[in-house]
Amino acid sequence: MYNLLKGKKGIIFGALNAESIAWKVAERAHEEGAEFVLTNAPIAMRMGAINELAEKTGSQIIPADATSMEDITNLVEQSMEILGGKIDFVLHSIGMSVNVRKGKHYTDPKYDFTTKGWDVSAVSFHKVMNVLYNKNAMNEWGSVVALTYMAAQRVFPDYNDMADNKAYLESIARSFGYFFGRDHKVRVNTISQSPTMTTAGSGVKGFDAFLNYAEEMSPLGNASALECADYTISLFSDLTKKVTLQNLFHDGGFSNMGISTKVMENFKTEE
C-alpha cells in the first residue's frame, strides 16, 4: 500500500456485495488510509451485505435514496459530522433500468420506467453534487467520480435505456464539473469501465457472450472490478489534481479497437 488516501475522508455510494466495484473501491480506500461513509438505497441494503463491508473497513452506513434531495442532504450533513470535517472524495456507483428488469425493449419502453431509471442512474449524480456544491461540503482538490460505460458513445443493443442514462451522466460530469472546479477546486470525472461481472452487469441480456467478446477485442483484456478500484483510488489521490471533466476509458484498450485478430479468426472462411 502507498498511503495514497491517508487522512482523506469520503462517501461511497453503491456497494452491494463483494462483486461490486464500489465494494472493491471501499476496500482499497481503506487500505490506502481513507475514512469514509458507506451509503446505498434502503432496498439495495436489504439485498446486499453492506454491514460486512462496514465492519471490515471500520465505516458507518447511512441509508439514502439518491433521488431524494432530503436524503442526500441528510447524508452529506451526517457524513461531515461522523468524519469530522469536509469531504475529499465521492464515488457515485449507481445504475438501474426498470425497463431492463421488466424485459421492455428499447423500441417500446414504458416511459414511467424510463424516467425512474434516468433519475436513479443519472440525475442522482446531479443531485449529489448539488448538495455537495451548495453546502461547500468538499475540500479543495477533492475528487468526485462516477462509473459509466461505453454504450454512452456506441451502440450496444441490449444495454437498452441505460445507454441514454450513461450519456446523460457523462454530460452532467462535464457541466457540473466546470462549476465545481471553478468555484471550489473540486475535480469531477467519469470512468468508462470494461464490462464487469457485477450484479448490475449480469442483468444485461447476453452479458456472458459480450464479456468474452470484449476480452478478445481488448489488447490487454477486460479490466476487473479490483483494477477499476485501483484506478478510482488514483483519481481520489493528490496524484491527479489537474484531471477533471474527463470520461476516462478503463477497458484494456477496447474503446480504440476496430477489430482484433482473435475476433477475425471467428469469421475466416475455408480456403
Strand-helix topology:
Layout: E1 9-13, H1 21-31, E2 35-39, H2 42-47, H3 50-57, E3 60-61, H4 69-83, E4 87-92, H5 98-101, H6 111-134, E5 138-148, H7 162-184, E6 187-193, H8 207-217, H9 225-236, E7 247-250, H10 261-265
Parallel strand pairs: 1-2, 1-4, 2-3, 4-5, 5-6, 6-7
Helix pairs in contact: 1-3, 1-9, 4-6, 6-7
EC number: 1.3.1.9
Catalytic activity: a 2,3-saturated acyl-[ACP] + NAD(+) = a (2E)-enoyl-[ACP] + NADH + H(+)
Keywords: Fatty acid biosynthesis, Fatty acid metabolism, Lipid biosynthesis, Lipid metabolism, NAD, Oxidoreductase
Task: Please describe what this structure looks like.
With 271 residues, the protein is an alpha/beta fold. The chain has a single domain (9-265), classed as NAD(P)-binding Rossmann-like Domain (Rossmann fold, 3-Layer(aba) Sandwich), CATH 3.40.50.720. Helix content is 44%, strand content 15%. It has helices at 21-31, 42-47, 50-57, 69-83, 98-101, 111-134, 162-184, 207-217, 225-236, 261-265; strands spanning 9-13, 35-39, 60-61, 87-92, 138-148, 187-193, 247-250. It has a seven-stranded parallel beta sheet with strand order 3-2-1-4-5-6-7, sandwiched between helices. Helix 7 (162-184) links the parallel strand 5 (138-148) and strand 6. Helix 1 runs parallel beside helix 3 (50-57) and helix 4 (69-83) runs parallel beside helix 6 (111-134). The longest helix is centred in the middle third of the chain and has 24 residues, at 111-134. The N and C termini lie far apart (54 Å). The model has no long low-confidence stretch (mean pLDDT 95).
